[in-house]
Amino acid sequence: MENLSTNSRKNWEKLTEQIETCRLCPRLVQWRERTAAEKVRRFREWKYWGRPIPGFGEVDARLWIIGLAPAAHGGNRTGRVFTGDRSGDWLFRALHRAGFANQPVSTDRNDGLTLNDCFISALVRCAPPANKPLKEEFANCAAYLEREYKLLSRKKLIVCLGGHAFTHTLKLLKRMGENIPQPRPKFSHGGEFGIGNSLIIISSYHPSQQNTFTGRLTEEMFDAIWERARQILESE
Fold it and tell me: Looking only at Cα atoms, what is the longest distance across the chain?
């Protein structure tokens, strides 16, 4: 945040603090803390984060990536979104190949990973049971996404990872007063549309094991998303 104004820096710091101390959803609080206490055998030596997770990356980024929620033994363990789980393995490899990350692997929040012109958020900031947030949990976290929307003042492109991210991003844009194209866009891998003259939305299958293990999402398909993102930003 070196190049930010004092007010912008304070706004980001305040948002981070509010997210990390949030206890709005009793079910999620119980689950994230129970998981952090019980752990799993392969991570028994870890001190789990066990708290909500703020967004991560460059706060003056033009590319904004929105996912679903932290994994119970991924972000909930490491304290950084997509870090330490199989989905993150796919994501950071692809971002590195496209030039949006300085390294292809992310194992913990102090591993040296930095993002280039890119910021990553989640719809829900706590790990949910069975990776399925409830309607009210999405609603409770919506204000954090709205704050990031406002603070990411240079954003030009939003990549939605999965159907939930796509649906809730459209809801966010509507709340922010943006005009959604009609007929309303439908989720598809590689789907793309513009919002006004300044913002482009791309949808992608989520790099979850459900998609990557079954071949629904291949690395070539995923790379195509980030290659297109690079093309869009380089054309400005």
Answer: 52
Asked if omega into 26 is within 30° of 0 (cis), the reply is: no
Other beta carbons less than 10 A from residue 23's beta carbon: 11
Model confidence pLDDT, tens digit, residues 149-177: 999 999 999 999 999 999 999 999 999 99
Q: Enumerate the H helices of the chain as residue ranges.
A: 6-20, 26-38, 75-78, 86-98, 135-151, 163-175, 209-212, 219-234
Please state the domain count of the chain. 1
Rounded CA-CA distance 232/236 in Å is 7
Nearest CA to 169 among 154, 182, 183, 184? Answer: 184
Q: CATH code at 179? A: 3.40.470.10
pLDDT digits (tens, 9 = 90+) for 220-234: 999 999 999 999 999
